[in-house]
């Protein structure tokens, strides 16, 4: 799970596929996740600098929780 800035907003991305591209770029394919439900709300394909990965990593699919989750269950 990554937290990245996109168009001035922070978004959470579940990585489906990542590959090293050129010398220090990482190409990522995955899903943008809802900050409330944690469910996928769209596909993403982006390239980031590999040096940004340590600060962008916010957990795994098993440990990450949406930042605005209410804690309620349906």
Would you kindly provide a written description of the structure presented here, covering whatever features stand out?
The chain has 74 residues and is mostly beta strands. 5% of the residues lie in helices and 50% in strands. It contains 1 helix and 4 strands. It has one helix at residues 53-56, and strands spanning 2-6, 9-21, 25-33, 40-49. Strands 1-2-3-4 form a 4-stranded antiparallel sheet. It starts with a strand and ends in an 18-residue tail after the last helix.
* Distance, first to last CA: 24 Å
Q: Ranges with pLDDT <50 over ≥5 residues?
A: none
Shape: elongated
CA gyration radius, whole angstroms: 13 Å
**Which sequence of strands runs across the widest sheet?**
1-2-3-4
Order of helices and strands: EEEEH
Briefly note the structural class of the backbone: mainly beta
Number of helical elements: 1
In this structure, how is the largest beta sheet organized? 4 strands, antiparallel
Please tell me the overall pLDDT.
86
Strand content: over 45%
Write down how many β-strands occur, each being a DSSP E stretch of 2 or more residues: 4
């Amino acid at each position: 799970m990554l937290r990245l800035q996109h168009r001035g907003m922070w978004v959470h991305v579940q990585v489906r596929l990542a590959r090293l591209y050129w010398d220090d770029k990482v190409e990522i394919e995955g899903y943008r996740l809802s900050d409330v439900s944690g469910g996928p709300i769209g596909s993403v394909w982006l390239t980031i600098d590999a040096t940004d990965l340590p600060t962008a990593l916010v957990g795994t699919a098993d440990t990450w929780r949406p930042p605005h989750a209410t804690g309620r269950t349906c």
